[in-house]
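Forwarding the complex inputs:
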Amino acid sequence: MPRAAVRFHIVALFAAALLAAVSGCARSDENPTAEADSLPARARDHAIRTLTAFDTGKITKLPGGRTLREYWVEARHADVEVSPGVRFPAWTFNGAVPGPTLRCTEGDSVVVHFRNAGTMPHSMHFHGIHPAGMDGVFEQVAPGDSFVYAFTAEPFGLHVYHCHTMPVKMHIARGLYGVFLVDPPRPRPKAREMVMVMNGFDTDLNGEDNEFYTVNGYANVFFRDYPIPVRAGELQRVYLVNMTEFDLVNSMHTHANFFDVYPTGTSLTPSVYTDVVTMGQGERAIIEFTYRHTGRFLFHAHQSEFSELGWLGQFEVTSGVAPGATP
Amino acid sequence: MKMSARTILLGILPLAVVAAMAAWFLLGGGLRLGLSAPPIEKLAIERIVFRPQEIVLHVRNVGPGELTVAQVFVNEAIWDFSISPGRRLDRLGTAKISLPYDWVNAEPYRFAVVSGTGLRHEREVEAATATPAPSPRTFAVFGLLGLYVGVIPVLLGLLWLPFLRAAPRGWLDFWLSFTMGLLAFLAIDTLSESGEVLERVPDTLNGMMLVAFGVAFAFLALNAVSRWLPSGGAAGGMGLALLIAIGIGLHNLGEGLAIGAAYTLGEAALGSFLIVGFMLHNTTEGLAILSPLIEKSASARDLILLGVVGGAPTLIGTWAGAFTYSDPLSLLFLGAGAGAILQVLWVLARSRSAKGEPVMEALARPANAAGIVAGFAAMYGTSLLVAG
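Prediction (whole assembly, two chains):
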């Protein structure tokens, strides 16, 4: 072949490559992200499930009659949705925010098998009374490592657990927390029970403030997706926990109703009868109320700013058995 | 001359190689190198339109990849919105976000668009005002505004001609240099105005280069125009006066855009005080146009022509700014204003020097130096009236 023809062929080859590349790019543009589509459903379901899901552990009777409860918790990093369309790179206990509600009774022997599946050290720091070595502060758990927390559940009340790795502010803001509920030896009166974890999400990760405020991890979920069905006359007990980072306080206000407040749940006698309870970071309270009237009743943070950034819900009170209500 | 196929192919060859390399990189080669950084979403709120019970945000994706509009906050509250054509924006893609909102006149508003990865993209409005919809009435109102701040002051400034002619002959140098000081002020003023706009223009659009392009293009264009004038305009008279009028006119186009946009963007409540300020400020521009005519004859028609060339662009700018404002376009015009003035300055500076005399030495002569300083000071003084 003459040299000019060879050159022509080389050029033609490049042109063909260019065409192939362009068509290839066009194809890769239509890239349906099936995984992202399930994020909203996951967030909604997790928030609703957290309301009534109690992990009571694997129960074994110890010689002497004590109850041993074993729990399995894993720290892992996972994307969650915190408001429709808004993804958040969370650090989680068991894959979602908040982590599982661990429930036991005062005096139980508690064993938590913790595994760190994250990419940096994490820990579990329980509120309660326990030995120093079980406090999850100085015993940091490296990625891939495990740790067994073992202690006696005391005192009874509504507590929390959270990661205590520095910077703690960051590890809490990213979602590493959950409820640790210790029931009194003699159970509280029968009631319809709900867990509500108030929190915030710093989605732009500026480390200064929250973009969204939620209950159980998904903005406005109990207003938009799942107004909570309630039966009139039935005692409602809310385990209310404040794990909001950055903002000093969070609160809950119920419309057209009042409630009894048991701060930290450590007493069986209510301390105040009110319709707004305000709590600092890490604070919690059990609140109990009964709806006399039927209809739709709002509940929300009385920091209106928070309520308009996602902390808003409603109770749908009916006289009969509410559809979907847990007995 | 006809190019052979071979020449054309040789011209395309480097492009084809680059395209092939880019394709390899995008189709996974970049990943293999471990160089693919996560794209950071960037969204610009380019324009905010206030209508009765409605606010419309014009947004543009100025990040490196596609993004999704997830939520919109108005004054730190999640707000319902509709978006067209859709939530997903390609790179440089645009959308309109409509928010039903009972906004209150003259109150500040803060908007934040939250994109899919939770990043906030913000824009503030200092004082909300109804965005003028193009109608005969608003057209007339903004036309009148442009007339007041641009056309009438420049024409009024031209009335100084008899005074200038009556002044002692020796003052001629002073007045021409006075014009230079004045133009120098306008050039810097125009560029600093573009600085304000630059803050709003996303980095992706390379706003500084738009200004530079405007400067270079206007300078070269006016240079070409001046070549048709006798001795490049340096001889003075109507030619030079026209050149100055064109330069000032282009500056006023930018000024008009800024005035119209101030309404649109709700960033300045343009009070009557500000309008009076612009009137005084721009009257001195008439003076600048006159200086080459002091010793030459000029008809009333000539003067009106000069006034219109220098002042009317304000009118056009005000309309454009009020009804179809765009920051990038504004940068281009502001650059053009500065470039045109710099070219006129250059012609004027050369006209100050006698044959063979270096320009810098000519400008250092007492009459010229005093004129430049006085012109600059006069503009600075009247500019204080515009400070808002």
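The longest strand of chain A covers residues 67-83.
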